[in-house]
Protein: Glycosyltransferase
Amino acid sequence: MTATTPTVGYVLKRYPRLSETFILNEMRALERLDTPLHIFSLLRPEDAPRHSTVSEVRATVTYLPLTWPRIILAVAKGHAAVAVRAPLRYLHATGLALWWSIRTRRPLSVGKQFLRSGYVAHGCLQNNIQHLHAHFANAPATVARLAGVMCNIPYSFTTHAKDLYLTPKEAMRRRIESAHFVLTCTRYNVEYLRGFLPRQDWDKIHLVYHGIDLAAFPQGDSFADVPPGENADLPLLLSVGRLVPKKGMRDLVTACHLLHSRGIAFRCVIIGEGPLRQELETHIAELGLTAMVTLPGAMAHDRLLAFYGQATVFALAPHVTEDGDRDGIPNVLAEAMAAGTPVVSTAVSGIPELIEDGRTGLLVPPRDPVVLADTLERVLADAPLRRRLAAASRGKIEERFECWETAKALRTLFVQSVQQ
Structure:
């Protein structure tokens, strides 16, 4: 660790979380670059499998206590300690919270984040945190902003997808104005932000793609060149993602029905969990696909790696929902490409930045199961195409999406934040 490397506090909504491997990879890479981290998790860990690489993170994790009496005592103690140490800064943060609660007409939500921020600020003072970084522009960024004011330290945040597109533009403008810098994970997001930000804030926005740990995907392990029929089992069509509307899993199931009706032999595994599980199970049953389309639920990364290696093709069909929610670049697409699995996805949001249609994968229009089925049929039947796509996709990941390289850009920003 160099003298200029700050101790960075990461403010996360929940840690660890199975669906956020991109944050886990980022923290592992930063620690490998000798950046000391301290994690503030606003919620307790979810009751789900954990990635084995969680054990590699050395950072201390601070949670609120488990029981309400202890939570109240801990929050009160934190606020009191911060108020005594820096009364003017504490009053400034209190005034900001009051103003936000009036402006947004959400006093309970803002009040909750204010209470959390005092606890986080106390932790910053105790652990000599020099910079706060939040993942997601909603509650974590609000807590980091208020805690940063209380402690007089810079803060930044990464905005991804839902937190960006479902946050009112005026609120996003205010958050970016107060931040030292802001990261986002797609060029598409950068252009969206520049569309409503004042020009003087454009330089605060930095594009840093989510990184993949290529060590988990050694070259030579690809099964993409094994033609259908030579496998011991049927060709595997794999998809991974939360079972939520924007992932387009219903369109994928419909495409599977079309493939089946054409007499194409395959099996489909959709890995993930979410609120649409029952609806998808019903849809699968109604289409007579229960023998070939399975939903095994969420799983840790080490188990998922085996599925990537077995897959003949990886498919994901995201779309923009009615309320504007959308993906950025789904991490699982980059993982499948790193594993040497041909990918088929939709031309939505930042996905074309990863998948160059016809070179590193194939893109189809969103909400179009017929074209999706046509494209999957083509890939399943064409082994040379699969080999070509797999080779080019691995090179794309090595070039722009390797986590140890993307973390260097972030570390530089952290260092600059405490030097200014």
Summary: The chain has two domains: 8-211+403-418, 214-401. The CA atoms of residues 84 and 219 lie 57 Å apart.
